[in-house]
Amino acid sequence: MTSASTILNVHTPASSFAIVHSCKCSFASMTEDSLDDLCDKLSRKSGTGYTGQRVGAGWLKYAFNETIWNLDDDADYTIFVWRQQPASSDTASTSTALDHRETPTLHLHAPHAPLPAPPAYRNPAYYVFAARPDAALDSFAVFSLKHRRNVSSSLTAPRPPLVSYLYETGINFKFFLVRGTPGSGKTYLCRLLYDYIMAEDPEARLTLLTFWEPVGTLQESLNNPRVANGDSIDVADGDGRRHWVLIDEAQTTYSDAVLWSTFLKDPPSSFSIVLFASYGIQNNNSADIIDDINGTSIPGLYFSQEDYATLLKIRQAKEELPILAPDLKQWVYEISNGHIGATDSILRTVTTQTKQLHLPEVSLDDFMGRFPSAEVALKACSRGAAFDRGLPKESALKDKKNIPAVGFLLQLLQADGLVFDHLPDDAEQAHKKGWVTVDEDGSTFRVEFPSLFHRVRLSYLLCGATKVPPDVDVMSLVDFVTAVVASFSTNVLRQPARHTAGPRSTASIPEAQWHNEFYVGAYRVTGGSGLWLSPEFGTGSTGTVGRIDFYVKGSKMWGIEVLRDGDRIQDHLRRFLPGGAYHNWIQVGAIQEYVVLDFRSHTAPRKEFPTHPRLLHIEFSNEYRNFEIKDNLLKPLRSGTLLA
């Protein structure tokens, strides 16, 4: 443990000063002075230009690894202190703070206050964030534009097919809407489009509004200096030049009837307006970014495989990201679904955890082996700011106003997406908070989590950290498996849609269905309490087998793995033995008991595995009405009848 008094440099738009702030860094305790202490000191500091105002969330930012980070809550502060550790630590060597000195630097500005306008003094040290120092940008815009410039060159993929498509769509349409949940990359995409327009049509007028804040008339709102950057907007202007208007966080416009009924409903012919929003709005006459529009294929908002491959090359060339083995490379893409915030968060963790291994390439086992448990691995991979924005905060989960939305999240956890003829109110509330995605296809609405990683993380936040019910607490693992299988639905297992040739087909049920059926059954037995999805759940397309799918916490500390029809069963079992991926977790007690479940659709197991007592075979008969559980020596242990 080390303790030190740290000098913090602080820059505001009008001044610079330093304060003394004590930090303490250890595995168990990260801070001596808290974030509240820091905000108190800054609030009391005279000469900042904010006398009488309380410094809080949205006021502070800092630079690390060529990215600008918020300092809004205790989680942000813990990470900030951790990043200030000496250069000998794993993380300090990656820091490239903007002042390039050991003294950490904060940038302070009231989130919605205008910046000083000439001829007032403007502190150059604060405007180091700005892409164009002469632009009258607010703190959020300054952060975003700096982020845009640096990210496009060194942190993520330039995405030319998608950006060029947006540009061409803007030429052909007066107005359209790009939707994406928080952290999905829509803000970054907005900045990429801004750059692209400047390069493709330097004579065009270009305005970026970082969000919508009505002030006075419509004309005054469109030119609000707090949010508007670039050329001024004149709705009656007709000089022949195209005028691009990009509005980020455009969901903030939905309550402004004047804006929608006049300017957006029928824009002047010279305008191209692109809105970037967390969710859509019905009856707004917009051309949403959907799978197909006017016969033209539209690239997705998330990373494609090509985008992802480009991203890896950029980060491996300009950062310390190691070469990823095929299984780790594909796992990151599968669990993130190409979601930009999730991808970024996981890759940053891969970088910090594996850079000292000095391996020619890093496998999924190498990466997971850096953590004492799957729980720690999940938390580490979830720390990215962009990914975190798409998750409900603990306070939001406890807020009574959010009970419908949280209840819907629990419902969605048990399904691989839900389809509705009419979007329920609880789903709409969750959607508007950015927690789920909604795709409208004609008369139906499909609701999903933004990525598999969101589903996994929320399964832990909502259920994994809670105690198992008393009746489950007294069960053995075999009793638990029996109760779960007995709760399976015969009708669901026999659904023709799940088979290639109908319910009497000899085709095997897909492994993904067994995963989901077991999770739904386990949720019924536990009520969700103590049950959470593994970070490796549902990511088996790489051909790598033997991944734990579920954990049951509390006093149990169970690990449960699912396979079908004996598929590469030896590989599954080997991972729990000495030298296997999970053996260390068993040794340290992160997994106190485990089981490998071999679900049999039509073929009976024939081979005994005398050295693997944790193996159970589950056979079904009478068209999935009955089941029997056999041990590793093929001896019957339990039997029963499924639900109808």
Overview of the molecule:
The chain has 644 residues and is α/β, with parallel strands linked by helices. The chain has five domains: 2-115, Ubiquitin-like (UB roll) (Roll); 151-297, 3-Layer(aba) Sandwich (Rossmann fold); 305-389; 392-449, no CATH class; 466-641, no CATH class. 34% of the residues lie in helices and 18% in strands. The protein has 23 helices and 22 strands. Helix 3 packs across helix 5 (186-200), helix 9 (326-336) runs antiparallel to helix 10 and helix 19 (477-486) packs across helix 21. The model is unreliable at 25-31, 87-101, 129-155, 282-298 and 497-507 (pLDDT under 50). InterPro entries: P-loop_NTPase (IPR027417).
Descriptors:
34% helix; 7-stranded mixed β-sheet; Ubiquitin-like (UB roll); P-loop_NTPase; Rossmann fold; 644 residues; alpha/beta
E-strand count:
22
Provide the spatial order of strands within the biggest beta sheet. 16-17-18-19-20-21-22
Strand content: 15-25%
- Mean pLDDT across residues: 79
Number of DSSP helices?
A: 23
Helix content: 25-40%
Residue stretches low in confidence (pLDDT < 50, at least 5 long) are 25-31, 87-101, 129-155, 282-298, 497-507
Amino-to-carboxy terminus distance? 59 Å
Class from helix and strand fractions: alpha/beta
